[in-house]
Design brief:
The complex is a heterotrimer of chains A (about 375), B (about 300) and C (about 290).
Chain A (H helix, E strand, L loop, with lengths): L2 E10 L10 E11 L4 E5 L6 H9 L6 E6 L2 E2 L10 E4 L11 H10 L9 H14 L15 H13 L5 E5 L7 H18 L2 E6 L2 H7 L2 E6 L2 E6 L1 H6 L4 H6 L6 E8 L2 E4 L2 E5 L6 E7 L4 E3 L5 E11 L2 E7 L8 E6 L10 E6 L4 E5 L5 E2 L2
Helix pairs in contact in A: 2-3, 2-4, 3-4
Chain B lengths: L1 H39 E2 L10 E2 L2 H8 L1 H34 L4 H9 L6 H12 L8 H8 L12 H29 L3 H9 L4 H29 L3 H7 L3 H4 L4 H9 L7 H29 L3
Antiparallel strand pairs in B: 1-2
Chain C lengths: L2 H42 L2 H6 L13 H8 L3 H32 L5 H11 L4 H14 L6 H5 L6 H12 L3 H9 L4 H12 L1 H17 L2 H6 L8 H10 L7 H21 L1 H11 L4
The chains are: A alpha+beta (about 375), B mainly alpha (about 300), C mainly alpha (about 290).
């Protein structure tokens, strides 16, 4: 089931007594989510990603714009008729019911011709439980389960009605680091097996990048960029997206373009053919540095962090306000630690230029 | 040095506790023991402070006293009527309160007022509202007459009418506490549960019975248990409505019987009062234990 | 399915439910407020006007304050009032001192037997007042303290529950503060007064309000222990007025007295609304 959002906008009345203007949580969101894909809605807290999810679920009504599931306009359809499954950040498992009763709960709501017999319901519940591998926990209460197991139960409860769209709100943020890795693979697997269009919300870019077919980066209610994770990473549209994706974060310098050459400080570091002369930002991915004696770009070496596979050089440059920039190089590269100055050559595809005013990407 | 400090602190602790221990010892612990002693002392004379034997006579006297039996009957009716009714209405009101936004604070404030009023004083108002005198049939009868009913004297009239006023006033008095507790219990249910239920297409009724009620069941049972205990001990509400001579009005409660035995025109019998108090204590204890057993079976968590 | 129609019908249903809810809530508000309205209304009617209304009127066109004058002159209402204020203030103050000291001992000091004493304290919470009032009555009578403030106050001072409540609160204050104060050479008592009491102010206010309500409404014990009008509290005063005062039928004057008695607590409640409600939901049932 493809999901289409058309000029979706949601305004909330202001709670601030002095400033009566509405708060725009989601602003003119247009996007077509292809059938059977896993989509990550990504952004810092307060960016409108949860509101978007709630609009798709039907728990919130949009101020304007339309939502389609397939060809059907569901904008006015109440949540319970949309055929969605929703998993909450804190799972919202009913604490007084067993796992089985929790999973059966949505099925017991069915009325009229959709009503299922006891055997059918049980069969469906067993299937859903099997899918998330919790069959042996069916008669426990949620309080007796670990966080990861509760998460699975919540997913099973959302899946048992075979929803057209599955929505996950920060599904991993209540789990510890190790479980998080495991569970996100699990979500990926379940999504692949069921083929249900799945949208999940997260503030963790690594999480979104690792399992999504596509990511949507949002900021202040406005979509910044949509695309496959690697595409967005390799081709950020603006400074915000560039900064938001990647660990360690991208290094940002004050720079200028003069006569087709990029200058950081007084050093001409890279050719920039076809770019008009201007002041700009140069953002360099940590893996965009190559250590070279005769490199064009000089930095002060502050420290060296060996991290097994890689070496991270902590460097400083007067053109950047960040006192601890990071360059990542392969651990087989010899580094002279006694040196105060190091020089780099830059990989052109890892260097992005952004406008000083608009922070939009300047393409070479 | 360490042990020195400990010893010092030990004595100090007791000094801080001393006032509390003195008060509790004299007015709580000693009387607790003494009441049992009294209850077994037969023929205790208050002025000479002598008695002529020990045994169960006081209990037997109390249990055969028609006034006591009347008081027990009244108390049980009061308990059985007011506890479920007040808890049920309070639940309805709390659900209503939780579903609205405008005026909610105002309603909450109004509903709490009976808690901060003097029972005796407002009881007097209730008496006037319900009383039929030579000068007026009273407000309650005015309302009844709007619906074409007959005139009833609720204060000096038939037993059921008096019982009705007593139950009505008791409910009026106990509601604020119940509404307060239930509203905060309802408000503390995580809204995600309701969202989850909504997405699953759960009907309002099923959401209430299958999610809300189980979630607040501990608080409901807390209210039922404290409600039972409170209703068994009720007394001043009856005094407010029917005056101090409750035996004559057939409206006495067990606690009222105890005080009447102790003091007033029919007073001067601490032994009978003690026996009655201990009987009351065991009734309450039994009912509370039954309540706890039931709640263990039915309360989730 | 036609979702536009579905939405409209569900909106209609919602509006209906809302209207019913408001009617229901309003009805109960009316039941709660009506006695208050009636007592104020009646207190403003003149004696003659009230008694001439065979069918009670729901309003009055000629309000008068004469009943309030009557209430303060014909019966010693002012005296009852002052007695209750003295009783409430002294009882609450004494209770605070005793409770704070005991809670401090349990929360902060270490001494042999502490846990045992605390368990005994907790078990005392379950003793119903009705059981001990009999002996207390005999004790106070034998000590010749009937019709005295001592007799009224002393048995009403202690409240195990408040000790418990305050102890819990004291224990939330970080130990480090205590050690820091100790290093500075602060004595235990000074630490209690200067640090713990100010930090626990919300709970102390809660406890105080609850005790004031309890004192203002207490009826049973004062009734047992006083038969001299000079020591009556408002509850007993009202009962006395009802049975003997004003000549039995002067109901407007009675209502004036009732209004005067009810106003202080209601004012206290309206000023400290949040605190009172929070305190009551923590502090249990009435009485």
């Amino acid at each position: 089931m493809k999901v289409v959002l058309e000029n979706l906008t949601k305004k909330f009345p202001s709670r601030d007594r002095k400033n009566r203007e509405d708060v725009i949580a989601v602003n003119d969101f247009t996007f077509e989510i292809p059938d059977g894909k896993l989509i990550g809605l990504l952004g810092p807290s307060g960016c409108g990603k949860s509101t978007t999810l709630n609009l798709i679920s039907g728990l919130l009504k949009p101020t304007s714009g339309k939502i389609y599931f397939g060809e059907e306009d569901v904008t006015k359809v109440p949540a319970e008729h949309r055929g969605i499954g929703l998993v909450f950040q804190n799972y919202a498992l009913y604490p007084h019911l067993t796992v089985r009763q929790n999973i059966l709960f949505p099925l017991q709501n069915l009325k009229g011709k959709d009503k299922l017999s006891k055997e059918e319901m049980n069969k469906k519940a067993e299937e859903a439980a099997g899918l998330v591998q919790i069959s042996e926990l069916m008669d426990r209460k949620p309080a007796e389960l670990s966080g990861g197991q509760q998460q699975r139960v919540a997913i099973a409860r959302a899946l048992v009605k075979m929803p057209r769209v599955l929505l996950l709100d920060e599904p991993l943020s209540n789990l510890d680091a190790r479980l998080r890795l495991q569970t996100r693979e699990e979500i990926r697997r379940i999504q692949r097996e069921t083929g249900i269009t799945t949208i999940f919300v997260t503030h963790d870019q690594e999480e979104a990048m690792s399992i999504s077919d596509m990511i949507v980066v949002m900021k202040d209610g406005v979509v910044q960029q949509i695309g496959k994770p690697q595409e967005v990473y390799d081709n950020p549209k603006n400074l915000f997206v560039a900064k938001f994706l990647g660990t360690p974060p991208i290094n940002v310098f004050d720079a200028s373009v003069r006569g087709g050459k990029l200058y950081i400080g007084e050093e001409g570091v890279l050719e920039a053919p076809g770019v008009t002369d201007q002041e700009c930002y140069a953002a360099i991915r940590p893996e965009g540095f190559v250590l070279k004696e005769e490199g064009a770009f000089g930095c002060e070496l502050k420290a060296l962090e060996v991290m097994g596979r890689d070496i991270s050089l902590v460097i400083k440059n007067s053109a950047s306000q960040n006192p601890a920039l990071r360059a990542i190089i392969g651990s087989d590269t010899p580094v002279d630690v006694t040196k105060k100055q190091v020089r780099f050559e830059l990989k052109p595809q890892k260097v992005f230029l952004f406008d000083r005013e608009t922070e939009e990407r300047i393409f070479c | 040095m360490m042990s020195d400090k400990m010893g010092n602190s030990g004595l100090k602790g007791w000094i801080y506790l001393l006032p509390a221990i003195l008060f509790l010892g004299v007015f709580l612990v000693y009387p607790l023991i003494d009441v049992f002693v009294y209850s077994f002392e037969e023929g205790y004379n208050f002025t000479s402070q002598t008695f002529w034997g020990t045994g169960l006579y006081n209990y037997s006297y109390v249990l055969h006293d028609p006034y006591f039996l009347q008081a027990v009957k009244n108390t049980f009716i009061l308990v059985i009527v007011t506890v479920p009714l007040s808890t049920g209405i309070a639940l309805l009101i709390s659900v209503g309160l939780n579903s609205i936004k405008p005026l909610r604070n105002l309603f909450q404030t109004i509903y709490f007022l009976p808690y901060v009023t003097n029972n005796l004083a407002v009881g007097l108002v209730f008496m006037i509202l319900f009383q039929k005198t030579a000068y007026t049939d009273g407000f309650a009868n005015l309302v009844i007459s709007w619906f074409g009913g007959p005139v009833i004297d609720f204060i000096d009239g038939p037993y059921w009418a008096k019982m009705f006023v007593l139950c009505f006033y008791t409910i009026w008095v106990v509601m604020p506490f119940k509404i307060l507790i239930l509203t905060s219990a309802l408000a503390s249910v995580n809204p995600d549960y309701y969202k989850a239920a909504q997405v699953d297409g759960t009907s309002k009724f099923r959401t209430f019975t299958r999610i809300t009620l189980p979630m607040i069941s501990p608080m409901i049972f807390y209210l039922v248990i404290t409600g039972f205990i409170g209703a068994f001990k009720s007394y001043s509400d009856a005094v407010a409505l029917f005056g101090t001579d409750l035996n004559a009005a057939q409206m006495n409660t067990i606690v009222g019987y105890i005080y009447d035995m102790l003091y007033g025109d029919s007073g001067g019998y601490p032994s009978y009062a003690s026996a009655a108090a201990i009987i009351l204590f065991f009734i309450v204890l039994t009912i509370t234990c039954i309540n706890l057993l039931i709640s263990k079976k039915n309360v989730h968590y | 399915m036609d979702y536009n129609r579905l939405e409209r019908s569900s909106q209609r249903k919602q509006r209906l439910v809302r209207v019913i809810t408001y009617i229901f809530l309003g009805l109960w508000a009316l039941i709660v407020l009506f006695p208050f309205y009636w007592m104020i209304l009646t207190s403003l009617k003149s004696y003659g006007a009230y008694n001439s209304e065979y069918i009670p009127k729901l309003y009055t066109l000629s309000p008068t304050l004469e009943n309030y004058v009557e209430a303060f002159t014909a019966v010693p209402l002012g005296r009852y009032f002052m007695n209750t204020v003295v009783f409430t203030v002294l009882t609450t103050a004494l209770m605070l001192v005793v409770t704070v000291l005991a809670a401090f001992a349990f929360a902060r000091l270490n001494f042999p037997g502490k846990n045992l004493v605390f368990v005994i304290f907790l078990s005392l919470m379950m003793i119903p007042n009705e059981l001990v009032v009999i002996t207390n009555f005999v004790t106070i009578t034998n000590m010749d303290m009937r019709n005295t403030f001592e007799g009224l106050i002393l048995p009403s001072v202690t409240s195990v529950f408040y000790v418990y409540l305050l102890k819990e609160n004291f224990e939330q204050i970080p130990d480090n503060l205590y050690y820091a104060a100790k290093v500075d050479g602060t004595s235990d008592f000074k630490y209690l007064l200067r640090v713990m009491v100010p930090l626990s102010k919300p709970t102390l206010i809660t406890v105080t309000i609850l005790k004031v309500i309890e004192c203002w409404n207490s009826y049973v014990w004062p009734r047992l222990i006083t038969d001299d009008e000079n020591y009556y509290l408002v509850s007993n005063g009202i009962q006395e007025i009802r049975e003997n005062g004003f000549g039995r039928e002067n109901i407007p004057a009675m209502m004036a007295a009732v209004v005067v008695i009810s106003v202080p607590l209601i004012l206290l409640f309206l000023v400290f609304r949040k605190k009172v409600m929070e305190g009551v939901s923590r502090g249990g049932t009435k009485g």
